[in-house]
# Entry
Amino acid sequence: MAVSAGSPRLGVRLLGRPEVLTGGVPRPLPASRKAVMVLAYLAVASRPVARSQLCDLLWDGPNDPRGELRWCLTKLRRLLSSGDADPIEAKADHVALALGNADVDVWALQAATRDGLARLGVADLEDLAARFPGPFLDGVQADRAPAFETWLSGQRRSFRSLHLDVVGRLCEAHPAGTPGRLRALEVRAGLMPEDTPAHLALLEELALHGDLAGAEAHLAATAKVYAAEGLDSAPLRSAWRALRATPRVQPSPALTVPLARAADPLARAGGARRRPRVAIMPPTAQTDATGLADAVAHDVIGRLARLRSLAVIAWGSVSALARRGLSPEEAATALSADYLAGFSTRSFSGRTRLDVDLVDAATRTLLWSETFDLVREQGLLLLEEVGSAVVASLSHAVELAERDRALVKPAGSLTAWEAYHRGLWHMYQFTVAENGLALAEFQEAARLDPTFARAHAGISFTHWQNAFQRWGDPVQETAAAYAAASRSLLVDDLDPLAHWSMGRALWLKGSHGESLAELRRAIDISPSLSLAHYAIAFVQSQSGDPVEAIRAAEQARQLSPFDPLLFGTYGALAMAHARLEQFAQAAEWALLAVAQPNAHRLIVAIAAHCLALAGRLEDAAPLAVRLRAGTPPYLTSDFLAAFHFAPEGRQLFQHAGRRLGLA
# Structure
């Protein structure tokens, strides 16, 4: 332990001005900004980090970056030392913080996020809110370190979003007319200076406290901010006049409910990107009295929030609307929701049936609907299976709707979010030309918003395809895929797609163990991410555990039965069964893979070889003809060069290739 039992507790503060304290007394920080930057990166990473990664992140071409890193680590050892143990853990080529029971503010926030803010009481939320005295690494400038500057921008945005979430939950927890709610609304308005609903809620709360002079002063100050930004403050003034004219000011659902959940900081009109807002409505017509539907709904909210691709409106806000009897249309307006997910339950024969549907709030059209049978005895297993299935289906339906909206917009008017979704559409066509178009869209998304982690993940995926399909130089494309995945992680280490893209890039580099670790990290963050389950199946089907590959592929199929990468899931199942010498099953899965409309040449190769292994040469012959018809002909050697089979797998498929005449 770096902190002995009798020592004053070490504290590390990275929100606001960086500080290191012993027993509440600040210690002098090193004069070098780079040492503080290394401390911040190691603290947020919460895991061993490669020295080479730190060098690339912080030094833009010095003569001896590793020497400078050693100097920074020496300074940090002196700064953080509180006992006999080394506060910097160095193993092989990796370093990490070893601070024992130190009070590190970002660790406390990460733990609260991991466990779920919805479980916290008011006192714990107030404690978390107090940990935000200012922006992350306030005052730190990353001159001549563009990679760190990108990471720092992403972290500041992420922590600001978390601050808004905590404050929003405090607005929800404190009753109207109480000092706690007033404090929370003041903080919220300060964090969102251009958000009209935030100011309306604060004005209303000030009126409830009888502070009309304070409300007028806040309105005047806000109007000046709006004018400086070219915004119209007339709606705000009009709403305030309506409040002043009310004989007795009472909390207004239309004004207070949207403020119960922190709005997405990226949702402001004109912003670089905007995550869609989804409201999970409370179950209706619940006659089973088991509470299972409520449990599933709560679980779905938590799981959706962890995807980081959606802004999920808090349960308290939605429940408040339900209690007031608002219609779904009124709820969508009050919550500024883009999509409403409705839950309803029916009971019969001792069972409960849960119906879930997703509605586009703007068009009132039904986008997706599904029915699930709930059995109380299943307990946590029910939440795991049904919750994961609902989340995977809902998120996929939203992705499709967002993609369709982006496809019909003129290219020059796209936000980063829309450009990203256009890129996804092109990417899933799996042709050379479409992959190039996808890359251009992802690059545009990253240009519009350099801190958009998924844009960088998309760039990585297109380079991955170029390397895997041999559409470009494999060495250069692998390096580009890895670099883009690294940028995605730098921007948002909690985005599961960032870890997914890194896991796939590491597979290209031949680092299978590290690849699996990143893919499992993606699942730890978001258990409903079918792409990560499929990627594990892909890796394990070739040179790892084929049994685990089958389990992972089945999980991916259950989570996303209509996934655009379904051919890959079937292909992984075929390769895993072939390695287990279950050739009949391998052939059946291979045929399903090649039957998918967007199956590419490598899937044809999997099918041909698996059919040959099963002795179905007549079925394999047309596929072999398709492979030989290419320019140049596609042979078993090309197939084996693309995949990373263990020696026994290579021998197996070489034998199949000879039977096909492709050796």
Remarks:
- Confidence is low (pLDDT under 50) at residues 1-6, 248-273.
- Residues 146-173 form the longest helix (28 residues).
- The radius of gyration is 27 Å.
- Residues 289 and 347 are 9 Å apart (CA to CA).
